[in-house]
Amino acid sequence: MSHVSLQKVKKVYGGQVVAVKEIDLEIRDKEFLVLVGPSGCGKSTTLRMIAGLEEISGGRMFIGDEMVNYVEAKDRDIAMVFQNYALYPHMTIFDNIAFPLKMRKVEKEEIAKRVEHAADILQLTDYLNRKPAALSGGQRQRVALGRAIVRNPKVFLLDEPLSNLDAKLRVAMRAEIVKLHRRLETTFIYVTHDQTEAMTMGDRIVVMNEGAIEQVDTPEHLYKYPETKFVAEFIGSPKMNLHQTTLVDTDEGIAVVLQGQTFLLGDEIKRRIDPAYIGKDVYFGIRPEAFNIASSPTDALTASVETIERMGSDTHVFFQLENQTWVARIDPKYPVSYGDNVTLTMDMNEVYLFDAETEKTIIQKEIVAPAVPV
Ligand code: ADP
Predict the structure, then answer these.
(1) At what angle do helices 137-149 and 167-184 cross, to 10 degrees?
(2) Is the Cβ–Cβ distance between 35 and 189 less than 8 Å?
(3) If you measure from the C-alpha of residue 155 to the centroid of ligand 1, how many angstroms do you get, rounded to a whole number?
(4) Residue 38 CA, closest ligand 1 atom number
(5) Does the pLDDT value for residue 110 go beyond 70?
């Protein structure tokens, strides 16, 4: 079994810089887990602690059932793939892939067998006699993966392995790495700062922020049920629109006020929030796709178009509201031009609300029971 368990794992550099704050994380056997977050949030440090390349300042780390706090990197049965492929330029592709096995004094025949198997999986068979300089960026990255595969590790660790590739190749390699994971049936732990990469590759995603874990969830759940404002903003492109406002009680139900107009929360949302939040400050969030061009101004927002991005399949319309820029994703069939006034409705069952102080969601996944029994 190659599950990995982090229990209150902490990293302090030089007695001062707290890079990772006592995190708890259970990584399941054979899963593809992605660590994502902005630069400096502690992703690489976490991965390097799992690898054994960085000492743990506190807590306990398990790989399988073994506590590995004091186990050296070379004895952890993990393989790591880095951003800069770190290939040896003077060696052939065969020798580059074989290198970790030679270091471990594996027999020649066994080495040949494993290298050929890895080359076959990665479509490198025809390149084994070449030197790295004669390969494309994508092929070089595959050689780095091959060097990890030959070791039959319990766990693969990948640190931003695609960031040196151009955009097109990155997308292609994304799919290849996912296929590789399925084929190898091994635990993969993958670090990236790119939310699209995380969303398209991970079985589960860990969103990190300032050395702590914000949320661990499937891509679908992170998008639909962000537990914090940070996750809501980080996941999704274009970003969720967020605005600080107050929840108000009206004759027709709970509402938010935007530009002096009240908008009733949808029934689904209303049932899931604690009425104690009425009158309190909240962040109101709405994703760009929850806007629609309105046929009449009733219950709609009217705003002036600031910028337009035509993506082909949809159009991103940027507009000013409450002194900030908002974005709506609309059907390209609607003609919209700069300076136009657009009238938009919001799907009020697809909105998000966060406590203004704690920045945690106030929308329960389950329907809140009424305070007074009926
Ligand atoms: P990420 O991978 O999310 O970009 P890192 O794990 O590399 O973040 O870094 C987390 C924090 O730890 C950052 O503030 C970074 O400056 C700091 N840090 C990383 N490595 C070292 C080091 N060797 N010495 C001191 N501080 C470090």
Answers:
(1) 20
(2) yes
(3) 23
(4) 3
(5) yes
User: What is the distance in A from the centroid of ligand 1 to the CA of 97?
Assistant: 29
**pLDDT single digits (tens) 57-108:** 999 999 999 999 999 998 998 999 987 778 999 999 999 999 999 998 999 9
Task: For residue range 193-202, list pLDDT tens digits in order.
Answer: 999 999 999 9
Q: What does DSSP say about strands 281-286 and 261-264: parallel, antiparallel, or unpaired?
A: unpaired
Supply the residue whose CA is at minimum distance from atom 10 of ligand 1. Answer: 42
Residue nearest to atom 12 of ligand 1 (CA): 19
CA distance 188 to 183: 12
Nearest protein Cα to ligand 1, atom 16: 40
Residues in contact with ligand 1 by the CB-under-6-Å rule are 13-14, 17, 19, 37, 39-45
Q: Which residues pair with 291 in a beta bridge?
A: 346
- Count of C-beta atoms within a 10 Å radius of residue 318: 17
Residue 157: partners with Cβ closer than 8 Å, 6 or more residues away: 47, 50, 51, 78, 79, 80, 81, 189, 190, 191
Beta strands in the chain (DSSP E): 4-13, 17-27, 32-36, 58-63, 66-67, 78-81, 155-159, 187-192, 204-209, 212-217, 241-250, 253-258, 261-264, 281-286, 291-293, 301-310, 315-321, 324-330, 341-346, 351-355
The reported pTM is 0.92
